[in-house]
Amino acid sequence: MKRMKATIAYDGSGFAGYQIQLKTRTVQLELLRALKELHKGEPVEVVASGRTDSGVHATGQVIHFDTPFSMPTDSWVRALNVRLPQDIQVYNIEQADADFHARYHAKGKIYRYKWNRGKLINPFSRNHLVHVPQQIDVGRMEKAAQAFIGTHDFSSFCAANTNVVDKVRTIWRIDFEEHGEELHMVIEGSGFLYNMVRIIAGTLLEVGLNRREPEELADIIAACDRDAAGKTAAAHGLYLEKVHY
Amino acid sequence: MKRMKATIAYDGSGFAGYQIQLKTRTVQLELLRALKELHKGEPVEVVASGRTDSGVHATGQVIHFDTPFSMPTDSWVRALNVRLPQDIQVYNIEQADADFHARYHAKGKIYRYKWNRGKLINPFSRNHLVHVPQQIDVGRMEKAAQAFIGTHDFSSFCAANTNVVDKVRTIWRIDFEEHGEELHMVIEGSGFLYNMVRIIAGTLLEVGLNRREPEELADIIAACDRDAAGKTAAAHGLYLEKVHY
């Protein structure tokens, strides 16, 4: 058996998230179906770097699985993509070390959050950008974001309904990119708690809209209380962009 | 009563075309529903510059309707957009002459056809670009496109199942634009027959893929026979971009 590492992209709009669930369409379900078909009916287990929520997208999710097959990369990519729906596509696949683990070996991740600052909703990106027609002060967001850099207890930025005990994580960088009407927040860190990127995005947006001051962020982090932070930003602005190993 | 002229955009992915039909979701159905709601239950008729097929998009479709209401443009845009689904949005609206007619007064139209030349399908644009991973020779397409310019009988480029008798139309320009992996064909003319842009796009693509010669186009037009032309390109690459009045 060979352990394969694959990089995949998916449009989260049509999925009830990554993880398999009864009676709903999920990314994992489609991956298992495609791999089983390729393996002539034999079930194949798939492990991802982490789950993504309903509506959340990925441009660089990483998965691993074991297979008896040997094929060049191009053949693997083709063999899987013809069996996958067009809203999930494999971008790269390669043989990994036998003990490679997509989740446990992840050393860090990059997420991207996208807002549309246009006056009107764009029908073509309605599921891929979050519409904020109000004036956003990006400089204030950049200033506020500095409070996150480093190692902190991120309890204030974690959905209340989680089982995770250790909420200390390290954020390496938060950058803002302006592409015409689009505003992107790019965040890179060692790991992220449940809803952490979306709560950070929602809280920083409130600073950008002058509803909070940049100076409040340190206190919000120190509070270790979900109620201290801002709203969870909508799922459909979020992209898992890269997993570091 | 005032006659209003509105410019709208829609993502064709979720619609069975523009025109109202029994038991399917169409653009016209959503427009009528939103206008009726705004007019407190009174039905309002809507006339578009023309129909678009199932899956075809619009960035500049034009409609007209009559109303007793007076509002500034911004209020009209807001009042309609909050009542419309996010895959249809009104971009502009203004009072027109009392006899303005979105269909009969159209003097010409611009359509855009979009291909994705990337090696792999992009899950995020799967419904908005047609994937052609093969090498496309754009220079050959540009050369072949010249045969269309001017006034011709376009019977070879009209779906066979049409009632239209006069198939003479004038094409003013066909331009190709390359935006990274995207290839766009922009076509502007006095009017277009049923499926005409898609058959032109499909035939020119065959030239770009070296399956036809640019010199064949004049004969294909002269044949006045649908079977002489190439395949009808997929609906989801097509955008109605502008209507001239």
UniProtKB/TrEMBL annotation, chains A, B:
Record keyword tRNA processing present: yes
Chain sites annotated for binding substrate: Y111
Catalysed conversion reaction: uridine(38/39/40) in tRNA = pseudouridine(38/39/40) in tRNA
EC number: 5.4.99.12
An MF annotation (GO) of this entry: RNA binding
Keyword Protein biosynthesis: no
Residues of the Pseudouridine synthase I TruA alpha/beta domain: 6-104, 144-245
InterPro entries: PsdUridine_synth_cat_dom_sf, PsdUridine_synth_TruA, PsdUridine_synth_TruA_a/b_dom, PsdUridine_synth_TruA_C, TruA/RsuA/RluB/E/F_N
SUPFAM superfamilies for the chain: Pseudouridine synthase
One of the GO BP terms on file: tRNA pseudouridine synthesis
Keyword annotations of the record: Isomerase, tRNA processing
Record: active site: D53
Quaternary data: Homodimer.
Free-text function comment from the UniProt entry: Formation of pseudouridine at positions 38, 39 and 40 in the anticodon stem and loop of transfer RNAs.
Family, as annotated: Belongs to the tRNA pseudouridine synthase TruA family.
NCBIfam families noted in UniProt: hisT_truA (TIGR00071)
Name of this protein: tRNA pseudouridine synthase A
Organism: Planococcus citreus
Taxonomic lineage: Bacteria, Bacillati, Bacillota, Bacilli, Bacillales
